[in-house]
Prior knowledge:
The complex is a heterodimer of chains A (112) and B (114). With 112 residues, chain A is mostly beta strands.
Amino acid sequence: KNEVEQSPQNLTAQEGEFITINCSYSVGISALHWLQQHPGGGIVSLFMLSSGKKKHGRLIATINIQEKHSSLHITASHPRDSAVYICAVTGGYGGATNKLIFGTGTLLAVQP
Amino acid sequence: ETGVTQTPRHLVMGMTNKKSLKCEQHLGHNAMYWYKQSAKKPLELMFVYNFKEQTENNSVPSRFSPECPNSSHLFLHLHTLQPEDSALYLCASSQVSGGNYGYTFGSGTRLTVV
């Protein structure tokens, strides 16, 4: 079982829909990261959070430390949001504590 | 550009070749990383360098040899690779301080071993 689990693995939405991607983790963490990867490979860091909620434009990320769960929400989705969204955590579980452990990613396709 | 530059973007090499991947950042970060992304698998950590010192080697085969001459540059030297080493290799950097680490990723090198 992966230490970081994401759901769903694949998601197709219509333009304008509200989208939620979920992430659960089983290790102690210092921070949780949401990343976006477009075709071609480059990764962009969307959020880093250790508690509560963050908002950037149409993107909202929340985390519940007690439940070891985070969600990424996209409001008014657009085809340009189509990408792979990756949840990752950093924490004090041995070795370099600043290394990322990744979920398997959620492939989002937003259709016009 | 994200501030982390990787070269080359694409590389095709034979199993007997020796090549190097380069990563450069001028963000003032003090930690650099190599990650590997194979098809249909999560990103995997390969190496971590904090303040130019290697602090993590995630059981990577010796045919991959990292080098960090200074806090701005990171190399991955490749020799006698196998076809299963074909993957996207991503470099990242971060500022290590106080427990919160903001990461910046490069665009990756798409490696094909033939």
